[in-house]
Amino acid sequence: MDEFSLGFTGENMHYGTPANPEVPTQIPGGSSSGSAVVVAAQIVDFAIGTDSLGCVRIPASFCGILGFKASHGVISCDGVLSNSQSFDTIGWFARDPSILHRVGSMLLPVLPTERRRMRRLIFADDCFQFSRVSSQRTIPVINRAIESLSGYQQPQLVNIGKFIASNVSSLKGFCEKSLNSQHGVSTLKALSRVMISLQRYEFKTNHEEWIKTIKPRSAPDVSERVFAAINTTHENIKTFYKVRTELRAALHSLLKDDGILVIPTVPDVPLKLESKKNLTSEFQDRAFVLLSIAGMSGCCQVTIPLGKHDSSPISASFIASHGEDKYLLDTVLDMYSSLQEQVNIASNLPLLPDTNGSIDASELLKDKGNAAFKGRQWNKAVNYYSEAIKLNSANATFYCNRAAAYLELGCFQQAEEDCNMAISFDKKNVKAYLRRGTAREMLLCYKEAAQDFRHALVLEPRNKVADLAEKRLRKLLSS
């Protein structure tokens, strides 16, 4: 492991580096590198690790295996030499989800039999901006996996940075001034800075006397982190703990007992060996942003391998509310085979350009849908719009356009449902009100249809289509 559990890479100047079985030329990730490597190499079925700032999650991702970080405090850390008590958690690695689940049933507190819950997957779309791995290798795979499973609601999107900004008031003093469009990004960066500051404060409290007495010789990057902690003064300690408390409450209000937040685990594929020389602060900054959500809240998180990108392992992470560890492990067990099936399918498909390229993949699919619509190929248009929605399920235009195609096909109930979605994302979408009004009129729901056309007129008083339809329905309803 990395010295003092303070490294990303898994390299150790005293004992060497465990070889990453998936890509021997790349680092295994740290700090619990040895545990991850023996699992990935099929030497053992599972191994225990500890996670403070990502020590299980990073090596699980880099070695292409499952890694689970338990909720903070639910498993005793007695006997663990503490890095920082606000973050130290027990975690474990496995290749098989049933073994991951079985280890959890042994380590986690025994809970009464739980009721069956509908699962809500919530994609933190802003977090995917911090990853250089195409989101097409993760989001569509997860979306398609749950389509074949029962018990899952339609996935949602959330800007988690803006959500945190609105619900964690104690974090505002740490945010840099930024444009509104970057407000969420600024909040996530502030959260990661608070996490690092709190970790340094507790590490200093735990180890300052020993380090100053023994003066241990460590690798340059570890020494840098050690002395950054020892030499830092902290004036906002109470506020750091307040951020932690408020964040846990905020995530519980979002996720409750049935929600799962989906984020990238790490910002990039594994780095080459001897990468300490090239481990940029920019990579670390992006990594800490992703790791700080579960780290600062103490929520449980699982790293799930999703195949490879450019021959390197990639993953996504699921986060559940603090204490919902069993629920999260149940979800992984339920989804895993379907996820891996979709990974295999996706690995054989060409990768469209997306937000990391010059063209947004969902917009490209929308344009293809528009072309098919103009060519009166209604079913084809529906298929293109559906694929666009899988990539970006919070775009009102995609739903509104698909509703237009459904109207042409005579699928009025589907058109109404799509317009409901479009309006939920854009309350001023005139076309959505017009198309929902048309669908409702065809379904003989005249009163509701008239209301839709009147609403369209409020937004566009000179809209002739809405005016004629509203008058026609008013006359029909009065007769």
UniProtKB/TrEMBL annotation:
UniProt-listed InterPro entries: Amidase_dom, AS_sf, TPR-like_helical_dom_sf, TPR_rpt
Ranges of residues in domain Amidase: 1-96
Pfam families found in the cross-reference section: Amidase, TPR_11
Highest taxon of source: Eukaryota
Each TPR repeat, start to end: 362-395, 430-463
Listed SMART domains: TPR
Keyword annotations of the record: TPR repeat
SUPFAM superfamilies attached to this UniProt entry: Amidase signature (AS) enzymes, TPR-like
Protein name listed in UniProt: Amidase domain-containing protein
Species whose genome carries this gene: Stephania cephalantha
